[in-house]
Structure of DUF1697 domain-containing protein:
Amino acid sequence: MARYVAFLGSINVGGNRLLMADLRHALEREDIEEVETVVASGNVLFSHDERPSQGLGDKFAYILRDRFDIDSFAAVRSREELRAAIDGNPFHGTGEDKQVHTHFLSGMPSEAQFADLVAAYEGRGPERIAPGDRALYVDYVEGVGNSRLTGAFIERRLGCRSTARNMTSLKRILAKMEEGD
């Protein structure tokens, strides 16, 4: 069994209320094992037969829609993919961990879509932006709450759904995934 993390978008915000105990129960009924939630904002550690993380994301999204009537995006990453997302973030180590984020994306935007995002945001704020593998890296410099670079703005320009986590959370989740190794 391989270990994975699912980052669920829009959970316990915007009216999508979901008890983590109910989510764990629903996932365990679908052959998802060793389910553990980390904070109530939609971070799920789990074990599953090894398979591409994209397909597992689709499975999570289906369960959320079928069982809870929540239309959500689930970005599933293996331990190695999560480590690569942390190590590959060019702002990690140069910005504050709570301000440096990885937006996990439902697909891989084209170079033209990324260029459109950068051009559309030009002059709107101090954020630093870089593309990644099914990810967008952002240093929010002055804080997410003060930023005009919102998830909706990003999704419109890149043409895919996203859910973001900061470096502090990602490191904590990776450490939990590596416990017992």
About this structure: The radius of gyration is 16 Å. The first strand starts at residue 2 and ends at 8. The longest helix spans residues 53-68.
